[in-house]
Fold each of these.
Amino acid sequence: MTPTPDLIVFGLLAVLAIASAVMTLASRHAVYSALFLVLNFLVIAVLFLLLHAPFIALIQITVYAGAIMVLFLFVIMLLGLEKTRTMSKLRWQAPSSVLLAVILAGTLVYAVVNKQGVGRALLEPLQSGFGSPAEVGRVLFNQYLVPFEVTSVLLLVAMVGAIFLSTFKRRSSE
Amino acid sequence: MNVPTVYVIGLSAVLFALGVTGVLVRRNVIVIFMSIELMLNAANLAFIAFAREAGSMEGQIFVFFVIAVAAAEVAVGLALIVAIYRSRGTIDIDEISSMRG
């Protein structure tokens, strides 16, 4: 297959995504891990944008790269846990888990490549407005209204749970 | 961008496996938590790729819900990590292997 410009852009983004994910796992300093994870989220957001999902891409940036990662950095700095032991006491654990993960990746890629339903041709163009906020809102509030409302309850429960967990004192220490 | 869906799904599979590696190898609970986010993102990428291929909005709506659930999960998970650190003084998962509080 001849490398089209689209394919080159995708290849660069894929390399960047994989490299930032590897650096997230390999960094000894937890803050570096968090910052590489932000980079990974941004690359994924660009991929979303290029896959005709602009609204989801912006949600990805605001919620993931914004809110969630700020929370992570806050907790890392609050607890002062930047550096901890990287490896397990069990000496065989790291090599065996890397081996198992490589086997998992191989199995997943093999399954994807051999699956008939996964398209390997170039995609046909979509109608304009696909993935726009208006389109997302139309589907969300027509077909998925109940899950949407349940999500608000879920967020409320999570908020109450987080407040309870962070103010909870053990009985024995009182 | 117009690339065959199979490439995007392949990237998603590799990112998922990297997330699994992080959960298995790292000992710091916060980094393990970040690896879980990595796996969620890989799944989201697969959703978006299939939505693009099928020309259907449903995949994007699912990603919307996944992101909402991930936000809730992070809030509760980080509160749990802070609570564990307060009671044990460590977040090394080898040290907090017992169920007793």
Amino acid sequence: MRIALDRDKCTGIGLCESFASDVFEVDDDGGLIIHGETVPEEYRDAVLQAIEGCPTEALRLVES
Amino acid sequence: MAAQRLVVVGASLAGLRAVEAARKSGFDGAITLIGGEEHLPYDRPPLSKAFLDDAAQPVPTYRDRSALEGGLGVDVLLGSPARALDTQSRVVEAGDRSVPYDALVIATGAAARRLPGTDDLAGVHTLRTVDDAIAVRAALDAGARTVVIGAGLIGSEVASGARKRGLPATVLEALPTPLVRAIGQVMGPACASLHTTHGTDLRCGVTATAIEGNGKVERVTLSDGTTLDADLVVVGIGTVPCTDWLAESGVQIADGIVADDTLATTAPGVYAAGDVVRWRNPAFDTSMRLEHWTSAAEQGALAARNALDPSAAKPYSTVPYFWSDWYGTRIQFVGVAGDADVTVVDGDIESHRFVALYHRGDRLVGALTLDRPTEIMKYRGLIARRVSWSDALAFAGTRKAARDNRGAAPV
């Protein structure tokens, strides 16, 4: 699976990092970094929580 | 018998997340969502931020009616403030309807505290609802001279919005130090100094003794005798949980609806979520009532799941988190401030870019960052894991060293 990020919507609030810190990280300028091209299966639940928890609904899961 | 009818009272973030979570969990019974306002659920944080900037900003509605009614199969009753709850016969009275339930989630939120005697004066507003925000924005569009009463998060964001337009803004704070409840005695002034840096007139230790005008606000008189000309007064002096309608219900109230760690109230089948609930937070072994976006969303979802399957109810444990944007500076706080000791571990207060950590005894209990968005969530994790103060300081040292190295590296 992969994560699609809508950078126009993302405001860098960081809740996704709080749920899945191995996958998401807010950078020094408030932009969001997604670590890795694809997301290992073990992080699925945490990533789903992050997607659900995003205040601006900027994240989407893309199954590969 | 499993619940057939879920009723959610309160059609804001927590209520919306409750109905969405119910469907996600596989519940296929009837759902009714009851809202006091005429509006579909909308997002509140932008109302005191980007929404104030220009009239082209749309109302931040989460879902349209067809998504709620058609997509989720929810019966949506708007403009129907809940009037009473009968926990014996399990019926909610809302507007002119009586709505029976098997499982109930109460998410009626909190209302902005108003200043007595100002209701008939145009130009005096609280900022809680989208109608409030539209009125405040219109006043700013007209070039209002703004006086904000209360130097809390919302009031400070309004002052910031006024200054962004080049309009004069004054913030009045009754206490000698602003933001004490949110971020503590030490860091309150560190954030509040953003006001003075950006040309907002911050006056602490004064109250408004009179707000006057001929039909429309014209001036504010202060307890020190000063008079300020004003076209817009925004009152940001806290909120009151919306529990009046529960007075006869038997549900226990104590500055919010009292709930256990699973968000269950004292009435069978009744759960509560969002600004209205005072629940026991296992992360800090204490009862708290939060008015934060994050907890409202998460509690709404969990309250619905627990209400529909009480035998498998899970506790809601959280490290509180809020953010606020002032004058282009992002303020983020995780944890609880109270009377904890505070140490700045990176950056400095004067530059308005720093990381401050809070500890009580040997436990890290909070973190405040100004324009350090990459740091804040790391500390939220540490607080949740109950790390010791010395471990927190060691971690902060590592982070700072890495930052200093990046800064020193050739470009």
